[in-house]
Amino acid sequence: MHGTAIIHSVKHERRSERPLSPIGNRKDIGVTGESLTADMGPDSWAATLTPRLAQFAVVARHEHVTRAARQLEMPQPTLSRSLARLEHDLGVALFARHGRTLSLTAAGRTFLAAVERALADLDRAAESVRADADPTAGKVAFGFLHTMGSETVPELIRAFRADHPRVRFQLVQNYGEAMIERLRDGDLDLCLTSPVPDAPDLVARRLDEQKLRLVVPEDHPLAVRKRIRLAEAAAELFVTLEPGYGLRRITDALCAEAGFSPKIAFEGEDPETLRGLVAAGLGVALLPPPAVPRPGVVELAVTAPRAVREIGVAWLDGHPDTPPVAAFKRFLLSRRGQLLHR
Fold it and tell me: Among 58, 156, 225, 340, which residue has the least CB neighbours within 10 Å?
């Protein structure tokens, strides 16, 4: 059992003055983890038993209260009273007494197996969160748009790890709204997204902007052009991302600014898939530049309205940063205006 760290945390436990609730008033000991979490009040099994579990495990290992008290660095009478209260709370005898020595009862052996698993899980969890917060080798949970994944994000991480070679990354690709929800749920530390969110519970900083182009099939009448006003495409069928994607909101807004509502032929989840649909002659699309030129399409500069999308970094307001997250956040903010390849 990996109980050393846990044992140290209870060496100086103060006795609770709260009177014990009768066993009959407690929840059934077979309560599920879900309901236990919901009922984590002063009369729950977890709140009642947790402070004494490591003490019980040490006594069970030594089968001797005095030796266990010495390891725990607590007075032997205090430890004896703690064990007695544990047995009283459970309503079963965990030990058979033989003078100064003890031996586990059948109930004690069953309970010890569960306690050792719980303490080992807690020890591993403590080590995991400590490791994630390590300044030199901790973890950053970083979300970003699919369009940032092939070139921008790998280059960012490569540059950051030049000075922080051991920092680990949990990378999540998703669309903007889904990443914002994961920020709020605590699954992400930071995310690169577009449009830059404006919400009271978030902090967001604009880092760069990216020009959008009207992508048309190479055999389209507009393919001979280099530039176009978006209003000239009002009669075209559009292929777009699904509602909820930031680029879809930008497309709808730009078309509205140009005086029309786009006729949507296809909706998808990936910009490169949309380029493939354009190449197949199924419509036109407003898209950011590709990482690698796609055959079968021509990409036209949009002169009016101004067709750009802002890229920003967002995080949850008031959420404390671990050292590696703080370092990566500083690095991202230092890249304002230099995030994207020109």
Answer: 225
Preceding omega of 75 cis (within 30 degrees of 0):
no
Cβ(305)–Cβ(257) below 8 Å: yes
Give, in degrees to the nearest 5, the angle at Cα 134 between 133 and 138.
75
Write down the H helix ranges in the chain.
Answer: 4-9, 33-38, 45-62, 65-72, 76-90, 106-132, 152-161, 176-185, 246-257, 271-279, 323-333
pLDDT score of 51:
74
First-residue to last-residue Cα distance in the chain: 56
> Quick check: helix, strand or coil at residue 171?
strand
Length of the chain: 342
In 3-state terms, what secondary structure has residue 198? Answer: coil
> Which residue numbers in the chain have pLDDT < 70?
1-48, 342
- The percent of the chain in helix, strand and coil, each rounded to the nearest 5, is 45, 20, 35
CA dihedral 66, 68, 70, 74 (to 10 degrees): -100
pLDDT at 1: 41
Torsion of CA 334, 338, 341, 342, to 10 degrees: 180
Q: What pLDDT does 44 receive?
A: 62
From residue 133, alpha-carbon distances to 66, 91, 122, 320 in Å are 38, 41, 17, 11
